[in-house]
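subagent[fold] <- orchestrator: predict structure for attached chain, return tokens only, no commentary.
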Amino acid sequence: MATVIDGKALAAKVKEQVRREAAELPRRPGLAVIIVGDDPASRVYVNSKRKDCEECGFVSEEFALPASTKQEDLLALVGELNCREDMDGILVQLPLPRGLDERAVLLAINPAKDVDCFHPYNVGQLTIGEPVFQPCTPGGVMEMLKEYHIDPAGKKCVVLGRSNIVGKPMALLLLHAHGTVTICHSRTPDLAAECAEADILVSAVGKTGLITADMVKKGAVVIDVAMNRDDAGKLCGDVRYDEVAAKASYITPVPGGVGPMTRAMLMRNTLTAAKNHQR
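subagent[fold] -> orchestrator:
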């Protein structure tokens, strides 16, 4: 039976370390969060981030804008926050309502305050192996592997999904850790065969029950990044947990796995930004 990778416990450990380091700074780190519209899931995420900031001793300032907000007004707000010395990080909660140019908004954020690591400058730094910030979800996965003494070096790592937020940066971080990386996606001819060769399998597709036991190599490490809802409305991932846990060596649960670590890494990135600004 697989060892369960406890993301919730590790996230608490990371945030406590962040809190201690933040307390030593000349001023409290500040995170500005912009939410546009009334998407329920986005509201839950933003509330969670406010709570994380409180736990870490950060200043958290929320800017809740109506869905009717114009592009130029949103960009003006980002510009104002770029200039504020008390705000070290800027986070724009995605997705944005229809009609707003997501890319233009992300490009407008000062890369030094881009704690989500979405700006092309920070993505470029990540690509060449000199990241300013860790992309939150992939960075959280790497922290989990480190905590459980799982070294990607020399291992076959398979990443399912090629999104800019998870799939691509996840592959880069595994590559930088000397893993041999394969990225799979909707046009991969034999997905099951690719997965079955993985020593470390990371699934970030968003399809309930996609990963079955016959797709997993015995003793593999299985990281489930997805946050789905099953037919009963229960939170679940891509992996059929019970059957895969019987075959894997390590596995992340959903919930309680990667999700808490994503939020913890955002706090660490905000601390990094604050340290850089206060030098």
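orchestrator: received. Logging for downstream: The two ends are 48 Å apart (CA to CA). The mean pLDDT is 97.
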